[in-house]
Design a protein that fits this description.
The protein has 463 residues and is α+β, with helices and mostly antiparallel strands. It has helices at residues 37-68, 154-207, 214-272, 326-329, and strands at residues 77-79, 81-97, 100-104, 130-135, 141-142, 147-151, 274-276, 281-285, 287-290, 293-296, 302-303, 308-313, 318-325, 337-342, 349-357, 362-363, 372-380, 392-409, 414-416, 419-425, 430-440, 444-449, 456-458.
Length: 463
């Protein structure tokens, strides 16, 4: 028996709707629930931030506690100790030798025109040029009389030979003229005698005019007058001839004497070509302009006459020539000790004594004109082979000193309430103590009371 269609429900529901397929309603077994990952990440981040904040708070509180107990985290300190304290004035200057001798190129004596000079040459340039052939090494020690430099002597030797020959020639010329003087005088006397004889003959001829024709008589008369005039002229010229000859001889004698003088000068010039040390000391070279540049003088250089080229300095007389501000100069006294340092050799430390203080101030090149400087001189009490003239250096002039005194850095002393205080490190923190100060320097100060050796003081005001 088949069921009634009206009593059987239609597929899909009571209204007879079609039953949905698998694409419309997914099966229950393939549905996966969604995971909640965002909530866990936020929770972890909150925990991390909380832990960091707690650590920072703990560190801040701990630092505050440590600082309250006197921690040295942000305060520089120094230890009080015993030592010698000096109050000084610092000056800068240049090292020079108090005892020295400047050697100059020799001045060549003699005529520059070559007058009365025999032989070749004699020009104004060649004889007076000075070329260094030999020169002592800079920095070497020399004794008095040792040869320091030698110039090329060739020009002076040639000049000497020329003037020697010229002097001999002029001497012979004078002798020849003296010999000729007698011959010339005798020849003139003979002319006078001949003129006198001719005049006497003419006078005798005039006496025969009575037996002569008028024309001959007139001729004899004219001849007698002419011979008389000739004779008188020759007699008058006798002294003039002698004077003329003596003048020519005198000129030759002067030329001869001039040549002899030039010979003596040339001999001196030859000796000047060798320059010797006038004192014991160290050889210090001077500078010269070579090809437009300054350089130390050396062999082969040409120097001008009278130009300084070498100095001989006494190493035991080194001084530091310096200047000091006119305000600081009032504190200086002759005999004060100092410590000298060389800029070129930082390891050199030499004792010195103040031996000179200028009387008048001078204006500085690099400061205002109202700021005056006083020149001073400090003698080096100890020498060093490296210390030579023209080195720059500085000196600490000791104004006052305290021996074996308690010292603290000047930056550790603070002025408060009309007194001086320091901060001393204690077991519970910084302790403020009043101190009595002594001699100060640029960086340290003597402590006469209030501190003990080994105390740790603050170099800045602690919080």
């Amino acid at each position: 028996m088949q069921p009634n269609p009206s009593s059987v429900p239609a597929p899909g529901g009571p209204q007879g709707e079609p039953k949905p397929g698998p694409s419309a309603v997914p099966p229950k077994q393939i549905l996966v629930p969604k995971r909640r990952t965002g909530l866990w990440g936020i929770l972890i981040a909150v925990l991390i931030l909380g832990a960091g904040g707690a650590a920072y708070y703990w560190k801040t509180q701990n630092d505050a506690k440590v600082a309250a107990k006197g921690s040295l985290i942000s305060v520089s300190t120094a230890v009080v100790g015993l030592g010698d304290l000096h109050a000084t004035v610092r000056v800068n200057g240049t090292v020079n030798a108090q005892n020295f001798a400047a050697l100059m190129a020799p001045r060549i004596l003699g005529s520059r025109t070559g007058l009365n000079r025999g032989g070749m040459g004699g020009g104004p340039g060649g004889d007076f040029s000075l070329v260094l052939m030999k020169l002592a090494k800079p920095g070497v020690h020399v004794k008095t009389g040792e040869v320091v430099a030698e110039f090329d002597p060739q020009n002076q030797l040639q000049r000497l030979d020329d003037y020697k020959d010229s002097a001999v020639q002029q001497e012979n010329t004078v002798k020849k003229m003296l010999a000729n003087l007698a011959a010339v005088k005798e020849a003139h006397d003979q002319s006078v005698r001949a003129a006198k004889a001719a005049w006497e003959k003419a006078v005798l001829d005039v006496q025969t005019a009575d037996v002569r024709s008028a024309i001959d008589a007139e001729k004899f008369k004219l001849t007698a007058e002419e011979d008389d005039a000739t004779y008188k002229q020759l007699v008058a010229e006798a002294d003039l001839v002698d004077a003329s000859q003596l003048a020519q001889i005198r000129v030759s004698q002067l030329n001869r004497d001039q040549s002899k003088i030039e010979v003596a000068r040339a001999e001196v010039n030859v000796k000047k070509m060798s320059v010797k040390a006038p004192m014991d000391g160290i050889v210090v070279m001077q500078s010269i302009v070579r090809n437009g540049e300054f350089g130390q003088i050396r062999e082969g250089d040409q120097v001008a006459a009278g130009q300084p080229f070498v100095q001989i300095v006494d190493p035991t007389s080194m001084v530091l020539n310096a200047t000091v501000n006119q305000v600081d100069a009032e504190k200086l006294r002759l005999g004060m000790k100092s410590v000298i340092h060389m800029d070129a050799y930082p390891d050199i430390e030499l004792p010195g004594t103040l031996v000179g203080i200028g009387a008048m101030a001078k204006a500085s090149t690099f400061r205002a004109r109202f700021v005056g400087e006083i020149p001073i001189r400090i003698k080096l009490e100890k020498t060093d082979s490296r210390v030579i003239p023209d080195l720059t250096g500085s000196a600490e002039i000791i104004l006052n000193s305290e021996r074996n005194t308690m010292m603290a850095p000047l930056s550790s002393v603070f002025a408060e309430e009309g007194g001086s205080y320091v901060f001393v490190q204690g077991s519970e923190g910084w302790i403020k103590k009043k101190v009595e100060l002594g001699l100060p320097s640029f960086t340290m100060v003597a402590i006469r009371s209030g501190l003990q050796k080994g105390d740790v003081v603050a170099l800045q005001r602690p919080m």
